[in-house]
Amino acid sequence: MLTLPFDKPPSNQTSSPFKTSWATNQLVKSVKPEPGRALEESEREDEERDGEEEEEEEEVQEQSGGLTTRGSYKKKPNHARLDRVRLRRIEANARERNRMHGLNNALDSLRKVVPCYSKTQKLSKIETLRLAKNYIWTLSEILRTGKRPDLLTFVQTLCKGLSQPTTNLVASCLQLNGRSFMSEPGGESFSLYPAYHHHHGPEVVGSSTADSGRPLRPFGSFSGPYEALYDSPSPDCSSSLDSGALSPPLNFNGIFSLKHEEPVGYRSCHYGLRYCSISQRSSADLGPYDIHLRGQFYPVQDKLNKPFHN
DNA sequence: TAGGCCATCTGGTCCT
DNA sequence: AGGACCAGATGGCCTA
């Protein structure tokens, strides 16, 4: 839920609880002090609020061009200075807003490359970070060992520490039934590869439908390079983005894919494998599982899959 | 209605 | 001095 960027000041931010916060109050105060209260006194309080009050309090001020009765120069209520302080605060707020927008943009980018992305049902910030962490860890393990876990284990690992709703979401993305792999309550840790040997089996496989309504497809082996590609290209994935349905960016059999902003015409292969790579060929070479990253295509699946063809 | 999530404001701290 | 970063506080929105 991003709000307006900084260059579009939220003029009618009715939701802001700070419409009447002190910055605003100061502006009001400076113009219209409370009745029966000297403007100077009001502004002196402003000074105190800034932590810069350093006056001898008993000094009754007979203000005359900043001169006290003792003749010493008293700190003159400095409108320009107060205005500067207020302006700094307002600018700092704007910068902070901008900074948070940048942070949120980065989070949105992250949401698009973790294995569960939906424009309408966004992962929360914390869940996005957790999922990303699990995703990185899983991919690292895959690279390190050169082996692929089964889908169940893969999803289990991805969902480690995630909330049940998010787990269901991820499971739905991967066309798993979320309940079927929540076998370790309380976020108890489990190992990616040991579980690989334990979770092949009918307890998860194909006995029900995933949340998406599509039939689950058996999985658990990797005899073919695309065996675990579920109904690829997905019949309904072409509209998944528009409809707000979950559009899994991850192709498990291909280990992972990066789902960045897709150009029109490329939506029909959400289940396709997209890798980031160094090599680049012409778009004429593109197959359905070529890389699409930042508007470029990188057909290097074979290269990246090599470690798994053993 | 409670709880989760979020945006925003705010003041403090650190750094340049 | 001013900007970046951070965490606390607060209130709005949404959902179960």
From TrEMBL:
Keywords: Developmental protein, Differentiation, DNA-binding, Neurogenesis, Nucleus, Transcription, Transcription regulation. It is found in: Nucleus. Residues 1-81 are annotated as: Disordered. GO terms for biological process: axon development; positive regulation of transcription by RNA polymerase II; sensory organ development. GO terms for molecular function: DNA-binding transcription factor activity, RNA polymerase II-specific; E-box binding; protein dimerization activity. PROSITE patterns: BHLH (PS50888). Residues 87-139 form the BHLH domain. Coiled coil: none annotated. It comes from the Eukaryota. Residues 42-61 have a biased composition (Acidic residues). CDD domains: bHLH_TS_NeuroD6_ATOH2. It holds the Pfam family HLH. One of its GO terms (cellular component) is nucleus. Residues 31-41 have a biased composition (Basic and acidic residues). The keyword Transcription applies. InterPro entries: bHLH_dom (IPR011598), bHLH_transcription_factors (IPR050359), HLH_DNA-bd_sf (IPR036638), NeuroD_DUF (IPR022575). Residues 10-28 have a biased composition (Polar residues). PANTHER family: BASIC HELIX-LOOP-HELIX PROTEIN NEUROGENIN-RELATED, NEUROGENIC DIFFERENTIATION FACTOR 6. Efficient DNA binding requires dimerization with another bHLH protein. This is BHLH domain-containing protein. It comes from Dicentrarchus labrax.
